[in-house]
Amino acid sequence: MIIDTHCHLASAQFDQSRREAYVEHALREDIDRMITLGARPDDWEANTAWARQFPGVVFCALGIHPDDAHEAPEGWADRLSRMAQDIPLAAIGETGLDYFHGAPRGWEPDSFRRLQQNLLEQHFDLAARLGLNIVLHTRDRKGSRSFEDALAIARNHAGRVRPVFHCFIGDTAQAARIFDELDGMVSFTGVATFKNAPVVAETARWCPEDRIMLETDSPYLSPEPLRGRMNEPAHLIHTARFIAASRGMELDELARATTQNAETFYNLDKG
């Protein structure tokens, strides 16, 4: 059994009238649990609805994506805390730093980056208060500034909150810093299967067995041989097979390791 540790089931790209079908597709491929990420306050309820409908199969994590930092409403952390009392959360996030996209209208790039950084600090504080770990997004147009800044912020909370750098596309040196400096994790998407992403494949091959998890980031980033199609949790099996083969492992071995890692990091009920 394999856990899809990061998907966006409330996305408009998923036909919400076909929820049972998406779950059935996943279970048919031995993807037995999924974590759906809410990245805006206006989609939090939609994500928790999935978890309520499929208890023990779909879990959720909630946060505010860095691209939407300027739209974070006053009192968002208090609202999220109240929601966490009503339905258990797997983690805080998706949050992080995104320097790939330009600043929104009315914002200077430097000031918007500072806003993202402040929001990320608030997410770490909230995660610490709730006793949860955190899901980080970092993205740069060039270089690795968002990664370095997120690493620095995460170091302020080392020992209290563990991060996972989701959709990890960094090299082995960056991964080693996450493990050594933060006791953190990385998770890999279908990008690892892309022919134009050899660095990601190499990092997935190199990572210690107890530090990696698997995800789709669906509806985005379908793996080979489905690249270009809408992604869904069932497609994680292709990424899992590719990474297992590249590491010289049986699929069942990789499934056991990544499942154990996810159960521990996200405090999931054992399947």
TrEMBL record:
GO MF entries: hydrolase activity
The UniProt record lists the keyword Cytoplasm: no
InterPro entries attached to this UniProt entry: Metal_Hydrolase, TatD-like
Keyword Hydrolase (UniProt): yes
UniProtKB keywords: Hydrolase
Name of this chain's protein: TatD family hydrolase
Naturally occurring in which organism (per UniProt): Akkermansia massiliensis
Lineage, top ranks: Bacteria, Pseudomonadati, Verrucomicrobiota, Verrucomicrobiia, Verrucomicrobiales
